[in-house]
Amino acid sequence: MSAPAARPLVEIRGLRKSYGQTEVLAGVELMVAKGEVTFLIGPSGGGKSTLLRCINFLETPSGGEIIFDGERLCHEDGNLFHHAPERVLREARARMPMVFQHFNLFAHRTVLQNVTEGPLVVQKRPRAEVEAEALAILARVGLADRASFYPAQLSGGQKQRVAIARALAMRPSLILFDEPTSALDPELVAGVLDTIRALAEEGMTLVVVSHEMKFARHLADKVHFVAGGHIEESGTPDRIFDAPESERLKSFISSILA
Amino acid sequence: MYDFFFVLIPRHMPFLLEGALVTLEISLLSMVFAVLIGLACALGRLSGGRVLPRVIAVYVEIWRDVPLIVQLMVIFFTLPQAGISLPAFWAGVLGLSLNVGAYLSEVFRAAITSIDSGQRDAGLSIGMSRLTVFIRVILPQALRIAVPTIGGYFISLLKDSSLVSFISVSDLLRHGTILISNTYRSMEIYFMVAIIYFVMSSVASIAVRMVEQHLTPTYLRAGAAKAESRRAEAARVPA
Ligand SMILES: Nc1ncnc2c1ncn2[C@@H]1O[C@H](COP(=O)(O)OP(=O)(O)OP(=O)(O)O)[C@@H](O)[C@H]1O
Ligand SMILES: [Mg+2]
Question: Which is the most buried residue in A19, A61, A173, B130, by most CB within 10 A?
């Protein structure tokens, strides 16, 4: 008898999101397995950010189903759309923190406070333990000596690594990245990518929206091409980049390489 | 001259200072209530309800469009008609707080909406509730933005509070006019009143500036970022 296949960490079926009349997500199907690195690529306005923000309910979807670690966050019953109570959504969110394009560090808190805020305030863990762990995480992302700095005193690359440290401090099951290097000066990109790569190598589950194609190719287990509000094509990086099928993906890839 | 410095000032200053104390009390109390009203109204207006934001908008509009002295008169003479008898002092506090509160609600609203929505996203994304995000992320940053403006309103209030003398509150100006009706020394007494207002306002300005500097966090202080990293660099170089 073979062992039953492990349940995916994230299961998304028929996910829809509209802003007024505009349908931004038109039925997204997406599975993310534990320990897997998933890249979402695609043209601007295709819905990548919206998809990411719907997964952790920063945006409330308009329809469809999301199951996170076996817990149903939302589903449709006939024509009615239901989602779990705010408390459940909050707990899920705390387990899949997000790293943003513009860092969004708490401007009024030091680097260390940024990292300890979630564990202290949300998870209510003891301060001594949280601070020790936060300092260790900061050391891991190469920022131990910046603990008492304010975000305004850091470079973009350092800010983004603090944001990653803030996510890690939540002891997450999954980290969501929305274009983590798009706002960085070119010479600062490598440091952030290295940090993300280290997470992947340690087996952290990652969902990354990125325009860094070389990086996606090296790191991804799966690449999904998001366009026009749904996932047009999925596969291994080699399959997506070397043997694109749809016309849209072909022209997207050639436009990226151009 | 001799008369002014060595007769009038020693004789009348104590009574004027008594009035000045009332001016300070009424201004400070009104400011505290105005901040509470302003903050509550800003929140109500941002709450996204249907009725509340409109009600508050109407309050703010009316209170900003009617002269303060008229507001004080209306409150002072209407409340007794409605069966509410407030001592003049508290009618003054009510009038001043409602007036300044209307202005402060706009100050708070602007400060709160000026905080980048990414700050909210970041708070929510680590599992904070909306309330926690507001209290721990948005409000502290908004308050720091609002403090200089609030301080400015306090200094104006210190001076504008002189209008409560018209509803018989025994503040500095009213004590001045009482003295004048007894002594007929208008010029000298008004001069003393002016000097006391001047001193109170200047001291208040200095205090506000000190609070401001104390509250302006490192991350907003001009040049501080550079200074701090220079210090850190220097600290790492072995002597
Ligand atoms: N709050 C909103 N209100 C209305 N429309 C929105 C909103 N947010 C996003 N959209 C629209 O949804 C579409 C998808 O946006 P989204 O940000 O998800 O795209 P994206 O794939 O992340 O693009 P990019 O690569 O430029 O970041 C866009 O057409 C955008 O205009
Ligand atoms: Mg985007």
Answer: A61
